[in-house]
């Protein structure tokens, strides 16, 4: 909207939603929009298609479960090998009432989506992805707090930036930081830390 009046205008989009622009518009905005996305930010990956894919993955996991769902929730805090809780494929799970209902549900969704296709939506412009660096330490851990930020961690997390493409953000990753990575104070703190390093 401001582009005709201010042709040299540049826009920096911090943690924009993933369902903001059509692929054509996102590509054409690359000359004047730069999006910054931190880690596994769920909002930057949010779109109708990505939430449908997440729903389908969760339903598939439920169908492949060897044990009841309460048992899985109790085990969430302790580490168990996935083979102990899940069948390798849905076919290995056998035919249950749930798998039959899931098959009927998927068939119904395919009919609906054939009539009313869902359009893919992307993040705007060029994308700078602030990715968490994994560094192992040979000794203990340190406790650090960001002054005034109230963000504490057991070990300092380092980030690096990479240029990314919109298609890198079409899937939601379930991670402990997927919500925190969207918060403005965390994005600000990471950018400040990267500037000082």
Automatic annotation (TrEMBL):
Lineage, uppermost ranks: Eukaryota, Sar, Stramenopiles, Oomycota, Saprolegniomycetes
Keywords: Hydrolase, Lipid degradation, Lipid metabolism
Top-level taxon of the source organism: Eukaryota
Cross-referenced InterPro entries: DAG_Lipase-Related
GO biological process: lipid catabolic process
GO MF annotation, one: lipase activity
Full protein name: Uncharacterized protein
The organism of origin for this protein: Aphanomyces astaci (Crayfish plague agent)
């Amino acid at each position: 909207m401001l582009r005709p009046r201010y042709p040299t205008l540049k826009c920096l989009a911090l943690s924009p939603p993933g369902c903001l622009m059509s692929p054509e518009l996102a590509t054409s905005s690359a000359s004047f929009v730069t999006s910054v996305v931190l880690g596994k930010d769920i909002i930057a990956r949010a779109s109708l298609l990505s939430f449908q894919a997440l729903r389908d993955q969760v339903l598939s996991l439920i169908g492949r479960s060897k044990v009841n769902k309460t048992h899985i929730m109790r085990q969430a805090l302790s580490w168990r090998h996935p083979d102990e809780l899940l069948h390798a494929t849905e076919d290995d799970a056998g035919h249950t009432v749930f798998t039959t209902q899931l098959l009927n549900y998927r068939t119904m969704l395919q009919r609906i989506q054939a009539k009313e296709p869902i359009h893919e939506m992307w993040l705007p412009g060029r994308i700078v992805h602030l990715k968490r660096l994994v560094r192992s330490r040979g000794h203990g851990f340190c406790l650090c707090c960001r002054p005034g930020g109230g963000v504490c961690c057991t070990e300092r997390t380092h980030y690096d930036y990479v240029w990314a493409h919109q298609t890198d953000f079409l899937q939601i990753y379930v991670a402990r930081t997927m919500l925190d990575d969207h918060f403005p104070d965390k994005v600000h703190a990471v950018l400040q830390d990267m500037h000082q390093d």
